[in-house]
Amino acid sequence: MKSAARLLAGLASAMVLPLAVHAAADPFLGTWRLDKSKSIIGTDPGVKDKSFVFAPSADGVMITESLEMASEPGKPHVSHIPYACRRNTPQTGGGFDALLVTCPDDHTALWTVQGKGQVQSQLQVIVSPDGKRMTFRYLWNAADPDGKAFTDRYVYVKQ
């Protein structure tokens, strides 16, 4: 009986250990809250509060986004965005159907958002060297016909 318990404990730790090692090595993982005072937002759509939780999953990373609009206080909108680096990941809801994330280095991710097989936008996501700040910046967006450079920066602080 003791050997069966040890075997189960060993199997459980063998399954959890890779996730723990991954979490320690990935600066994106954790809870991030939007800091509007540190952000540059050209046209604020009325965001009251926004946060992301990046958590390891069996297929890569699962992002849980919570968004509360000032026009709907107390009614957070929650969405789930799975991804795996270097693989087009199908999405449901949220206005896009695929997300390709490439990771040129440990602190930088490039997100390519696709809808109906077409690139809709590209974002750069950078975690600061100290791991306390994450910045989102649009590099390109199909909804902008002028092709102007984006100056918006959305700064998130690790919780």
Brief write-up:
With 159 residues, this protein is α+β, with helices and mostly antiparallel strands. It contains 1 helix and 10 strands; from the N terminus they run H-E-E-E-E-E-E-E-E-E-E.
From the structure above, extract its key features.
single chain; 159 residues; Lipocalin; ten-stranded antiparallel beta sheet; 1 helix; globular
Distance between the termini: 43 Å
The helix-and-strand class reads: alpha+beta
Q: Shape from CA axes?
A: globular
**Uncertain residue segments:** 1-23
> How many separate domains make up the residues?
1
Overall radius of gyration: 18 Å
Structure in words:
The chain is α+β, with helices and mostly antiparallel strands and 159 residues long. The chain has one domain (2-158): Calycin beta-barrel core domain (Lipocalin, Beta Barrel). Helix content is 15%, strand content 47%. It contains 1 helix and 10 strands; from the N terminus they run αββββββββββ. The chain has one helix at 2-25, and strands at residues 30-34, 47-57, 60-69, 77-83, 89-90, 98-105, 108-115, 118-127, 133-141, 154-158. Strands 4-3-2-1-10-9-8-7-6-5 form a 10-stranded antiparallel sheet. β2 and β3 (60-69) form a beta hairpin. It starts with a helix and ends with a strand. Residues 1-23 have low confidence and may be disordered.
